[in-house]
């Protein structure tokens, strides 16, 4: 049975890395003391070692050990052995490119389906949807495909940002961008604001955190859903 | 001899479509009364016809006729016949995808090299660089490649936006995103603020408009350049 936490962000403004999630993570990962971290998204281009250290520092606060997947000779084997997985944020294109390069997409799908608890933040959440067509990231590398894990039957837009009514900038708002996505694609998109996450247990998908989320469906006016809403019907 | 205007945006805040450029365009396109418009980037997913109408309305103010490339049975032939080309903004991935689909990349390179005046705005400017790895757009479709026209020896970031010091949003700033690009790629990037454009005449590349631009070079601290700066040495 799938057990996932798909979070908009690792960090909310004014607090430490993963701080707002630590209590929840303590119970989410209750059956394991060791987390396998996938640092491939490399925020700011930092090294896999440096990024893993950040995850280690956070998880040490709830008594969990973290090991980076890059520390294993056989990343596929490491995934299969893992009792808990965390895929951190950074650049979604870099993350997806490396997952394809190491042929890990199928293995990730398999271990998540088999019940290994999975935490994703930001880019690590983007890959839980159908495709990365709704990432906010700059396409700094060209991955072999935009198709990803499809662990939920829709796409995710993390760090969802409401339009700034005072802005004089002519770039598109997030809402406009997602509506453009629907000119070429039909799957729903969930705009997850920073501080929100999806809790997946088997076929159930529930919005958690304090904030509402925004739902974009093909040929439908976007609408808000409250925290606690069951989104398993969204497809 | 190349003759290009590579503009950050079609529209500056509080004015009409192309308004801030019309005087310059009048002299830039002085040798032709007819402009071929490429509406493939489809801002907001609008139709090619609707988008072409917007370009028509703007160019009619300086006595130029506009025809959309989609109105021709043979788009490649239309490009070869054109005396002036305008590629409008919208979604860079959609634009590039359609250019590849219609096999127009090589033809565009050829006619620009041969001296057909080319105006690009936003997505239409992005494609003048080496790759679209530094677009701001959402990757709503998967193009066959990120490689584009390479009419200048660097990459372009249109709608360049300075960091907002008051922001509580945890998404990356534009500067951070471009610096991440340099973790995987070495070409320079020019951040073109809205209201700026590059004027290309043969091998000369000069920054025009009222604003400074920001230059990002591999392994170098980003720096500002004044309008009027010759950027032909940037590579």
Automatic annotation (TrEMBL), chains A, B:
One of its GO terms (biological process) is proteolysis. GO terms for cellular component: cytoplasm. It catalyses: Dipeptidase E catalyzes the hydrolysis of dipeptides Asp-|-Xaa. It does not act on peptides with N-terminal Glu, Asn or Gln, nor does it cleave isoaspartyl peptides. Its EC number is 3.4.13.21. GO terms for molecular function: dipeptidase activity; serine-type peptidase activity. It comes from the Bacteria. Keywords: Cytoplasm, Dipeptidase, Hydrolase, Protease, Serine protease. InterPro entries: Class_I_gatase-like (IPR029062), Peptidase_S51 (IPR005320). It is an enzyme of class 3 (hydrolase). It is found in: Cytoplasm. Its main location: cytoplasm. Pfam families: Peptidase_S51 (PF03575). Belongs to the peptidase S51 family. This is dipeptidase E.
């Amino acid at each position: 049975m799938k057990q996932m936490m798909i979070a908009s962000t690792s960090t909310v403004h004014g607090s430490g890395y993963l701080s707002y999630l630590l209590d929840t993570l303590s119970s989410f990962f209750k059956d394991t003391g060791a987390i396998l971290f996938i640092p491939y998204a490399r925020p700011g281009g930092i090294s896999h070692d440096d990024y893993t250290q950040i995850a280690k520092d956070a998880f040490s606060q709830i008594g969990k050990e973290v090991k980076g997947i890059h520390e294993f000779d056989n990343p596929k084997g490491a995934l299969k052995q893992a009792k808990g997985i965390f895929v951190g944020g950074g650049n979604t294109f870099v993350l997806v490119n490396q997952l394809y390069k190491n042929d890990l997409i199928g293995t990730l799908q398999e271990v998540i389906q088999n019940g290994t608890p999975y935490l994703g933040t930001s880019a690590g959440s983007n890959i839980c949807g159908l495709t990365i067509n709704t990432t906010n990231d700059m396409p700094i590398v060209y991955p072999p495909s935009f198709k990803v894990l499809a662990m939920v039957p829709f796409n995710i837009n993390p760090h969802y940002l409401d339009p700034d009514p005072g802005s004089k900038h002519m770039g598109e708002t997030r809402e406009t961008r997602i509506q453009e996505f629907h000119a070429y694609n039909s799957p729903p998109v969930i705009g997850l604001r920073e501080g929100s996450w999806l809790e997946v247990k088997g076929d159930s998908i529930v919005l958690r955190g304090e904030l509402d989320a925004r739902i974009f469906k093909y040929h439908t006016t976007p609408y808000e859903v409250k925290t606690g809403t069951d989104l398993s019907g969204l497809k």
